[in-house]
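Sample pair:
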Amino acid sequence: MKHIRLTQETLDHWAEMTNRNDHIEVRIEIAEFFKIRHDDEKWLDYASAWKQYKEVCEASSREALTASCILCRAMISEIARKYGEDVAEKVSECL
């Protein structure tokens, strides 16, 4: 399992982003922080997926909630797999 330094300050920052309704942006930051890729495929990174999702939402002027939920659950699962359930739970609590 990988180790990462996840500070309370970072968690508080993410929670504040969620409180400001920056829901997609916080997920982009989380994905960039952990540098996670789906199954370690170089081109299947979560930050790019969230950025593409944001572009689609902006173009359509609405959020695709089902896609967001699926992408978020997959990202949190990947964090849990690589960094442990405790880390994933702390990140999830910010969202």
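The mean pLDDT is 93.
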